[in-house]
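Minimal example, chain plus fe (iii) ion.
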Amino acid sequence: MTHSTKDIIERTATIGLGVDRLQALQSFNTRLVCMNVDESSYEEVVTGVWKVIGCDYCALFLKDPHSGQLVLQASVGYDDVSSGLRIPCDDPTSIHAQAFTEEYMVCLDDLSGTPGVNPLCHKMGSSLVLPVISNQGPVGVFDFGSNATHAFPPQEIGMCSMVVDQMSYSLENIRLVRELRDSRDAVIRGMALLSEIRDSHIGGHLSRICAMSRYLAERLVDRVGYREVTPSFLNTIERAAALHDVGKVGIPDSVLLKPGKLTDEEFDVMRTHSTLGADLLEGLIDDYGEYAMITMGAAVARSHHERWDGKGYPNGISGKSIPLEARIVSICDVYDALTSKRVYKDAWGHEETLQILREGAGTQFDPDLVKVFLSRPDDLVEIRKRYPDKEIKST
Ligand code: C2E
Ligand code: SIN
Ligand code: SIN
Ligand code: SIN
Ligand code: FE
């Protein structure tokens, strides 16, 4: 439930709220309102509540609709609890399950004689568990704990329930946005896989390109000149890199699967895959709106075969006119293509591959990025090991 300002002032007056707490509450509310839902996390919300209340422990459990269990999403203060801890909703011994099913608080003032009542911590003094109720009904529970006994007198409970109320809408928004984003990403990934499946060399290729692109981008963080490499850039490139070759879906088998070298005419056809892919993705944006992964995917698809010296395709742009994400994926794509077997060639050895990239620095590739990419070759071998090729169809 949301509260009007008047409402809050009245309630804070009755519960004797100090100025510090009021300020903490206000900044928490501001953060909830201004939060970019896509980037935010349960961690952030739980930490915010914990700062406002100032107790020793906080934890958020949400009901998993598939298993019907309460699953720990985030906690502060507890040692040794990993998110993912599950409590069955019908566990008769659980205070969390009780608060959830009865939709009513459970407050235990003195746990000193009954250690273990709260499974998150065995040496707790007092514990308050409140149901989290969204407009759809109960969605989980919020757990407050203190080392002291009797830490949750009535006015403290009033404060805790007010904060939990205010948080519950944000939680619902985070959940919905994630669910939407995950299903969207799954469909887009499926699209990328479909285009690769005809190529038959796949298996680990897409996963490696994604992991390597994120890796190279991560290594740019904090370097001068790469302010655009933010956490959201990292999350986006990791997914968008998979889209670099979606346009291959429009290349006829006779060209795509040709066992030997392509003729000039065939290579002209092959080169259209970058424009085909970018146009496909930009069409999706026109029809369904902006989505960071698609927007970046379109830039990567269009420009991943451009060259630093301007001799690439489709537009012959050069240097920093080539979007950074495409310069990154280009290096990772060629590294992976060279170290892999293709219908038209055998795999190159690791050393030869590094040599080709080194030689391409400043002509084919952004020399700065190549330097960073090649500075820890063991990392590349490690990524390759993590995503080995799986033969999907023999050629
Ligand atoms: P791909 O196999 O995924 O290769 C991606 C890029 O890696 C190539 O882009 C190229 O820059 C680099 N690359 C791959 N193999 C080699 C190599 O042996 N030597 C060097 N120096 N670079 C290599 P490119 O050339 O624009 O090719 C785009 C796509 O066109 C390739 O994607 C592949 O599907 C197809 N293709 C290119 N050449 C041939 C060919 O001779 N025969 C067939 N059947 N397909 C080819
Ligand atoms: C997030 O928590 O919003 C980022 C998770 C991801 O999609 O990588
Ligand atoms: C930037 O100056 O932030 C861009 C750096 C680059 O594109 O390489
Ligand atoms: C190749 O396909 O063998 C070379 C392509 C390039 O370096 O532009
Ligand atoms: Fe390509």
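The CA atoms of residues 359 and 365 lie 9 Å apart. The beta strands are 57-64, 69-76, 86-88, 106-108, 126-134, 137-146.
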